[in-house]
Amino acid sequence: MLRDSYQSVLAAQSQHHFRDEIVRFAHELGFETVSATLIIDNPMTGAEFFGTDNTPAAYYDTYTNHSMGKLDPVMQHCKHHHRPIVWNQATYVQAGVGEIWEEQAAFGLRNGIAVAMHLPEGKHFFIGVDRCEALPKPSHEVNRLMADLQLFAVHAHEAASSIFTPLKSRDEKRPRLTPRELECLNWTMAGKTAWEVGAILGISERTAVLHLNNAMHKLGCNNKHQAVLKALRQGYIRC
Question: For residue range 166-182, what is the model confidence (pLDDT) as tens digits?
Answer without folding.
Answer: 544 544 567 889 999 99
